[in-house]
Design goal:
Elements lengths: L2 H23 L2 H17 L7 H21 L1 H5 L21 H12 L2 H12 L4 H8 L3 H23 L3
Length: 166
Amino acid sequence: MEKTQYERIVAEYLDMVYKIAVSYAKNATDADDIVQQTFYKLLIRKSGFKDEEHIKRWLIRVCINECNSLFSGFWRRNVHLFGQREGDRETSEDPLFEAQESRVLHEAVRKLPGKCRSVIYLFYYEGYRTQEIAEILHIREATARTRLVRGRKILKEELKEAWDYE
């Protein structure tokens, strides 16, 4: 891949990849590692892309895979740092969501189970249809719709108290 093309892709998709990584990792340090690995894999990729949409989908898929591998390793499952209880992860203020309502919604999305979280993110934040989400995540379209419905239901319950709506 040419240097100028690589720099253009990084500049265009860095925010998207970072938001996905933060939603999974729940802290900036791990998200930075995930972003770095994602763009490293882009750099060493041998074959080209068909179009811009192919690049975007490839980056999303690789980022999600990196998130999953980061938290599936032995170290992450079995070693806990001092001051960190089981099930807790470091959280930091996210400058991407300044408004209180946006921050509450973002936190609720981050608390979703991983399968629902990725579908919700791709549908609402990236604007993909369920058929496209199914292709990106390598799942059936019905599965993508089911995860979307489950994620919405969880969010509705979670946000009902925060936003006092019925």
